[in-house]
């Protein structure tokens, strides 16, 4: 049985679902801009829009840091949600371009978000998962 520090409550599912919904909305804006206004080219504005999504993830994590730390695997869950939605959105976009026969749209600018971001962020995610498993998902609470 776990004992919570006085005045601290673990994060509930509601803020996590809201977080996922807002990150999804953010990546839809990024991909919508990229597909419709940038002719499926990765531009500086694509990066700026992605930075807005990253800033939201950072603010959410900072705002809920205490409640995330005392719910098992909550921090890892936020990391997984963000990774899956952001990286997944670029892979889906690239796959749709290939299926539509627009391979030429996948210029050199796509290697960053599709390959580099997937691999480098994936390594970070794997390290985070390993650490979470080693401490059984808790940072502040003894299990």
List keywords for this structure.
143 residues, mainly alpha, 70% helix
**Classification by helices and strands:** mainly alpha
* Rg calculated over all Cα atoms: 18 Å
- Which percent range describes the beta-strand content? under 5%
Number of domains: 1
Low-confidence stretches: none
Which descriptor suits the 3D outline? elongated
Major pleated sheet: none
Element-by-element helix/strand order: HHHHH
Overall pLDDT, averaged?
A: 89
**Distance between the ends:** 7 Å
Provide a descriptive summary of the structure in words.
This protein has 143 residues and is an all-alpha fold. The chain has one domain (13-134). 70% of the residues lie in helices and 0% in strands. The chain contains 5 helices and no strands. The chain has helices at 13-37, 44-63, 65-69, 74-99, 111-134. α1 (13-37) runs parallel beside α4. The longest helix has 26 residues, at 74-99. The N and C termini lie close together (7 Å). The mean pLDDT is 89.
């Amino acid at each position: 049985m776990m004992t919570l520090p006085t005045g601290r409550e673990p994060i509930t599912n509601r803020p996590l679902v809201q977080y996922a919904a807002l990150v999804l909305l953010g990546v839809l804006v990024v991909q919508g801009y990229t597909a419709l206004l940038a002719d499926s080219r990765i531009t500086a504005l694509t990066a700026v829009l992605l930075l807005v999504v990253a800033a939201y993830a950072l603010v959410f994590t900072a705002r809920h840091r205490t409640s995330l730390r005392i719910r098992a695997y909550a921090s890892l869950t936020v990391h997984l949600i963000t990774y899956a939605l952001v990286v997944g959105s670029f892979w889906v976009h690239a796959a749709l371009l290939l299926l539509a026969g627009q391979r030429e749209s996948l210029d050199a600018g796509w290697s960053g978000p599709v390959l580099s971001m997937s691999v480098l962020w994936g390594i970070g995610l794997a390290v985070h998962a390993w650490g979470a498993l080693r401490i059984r998902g808790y940072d502040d609470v003894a299990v």
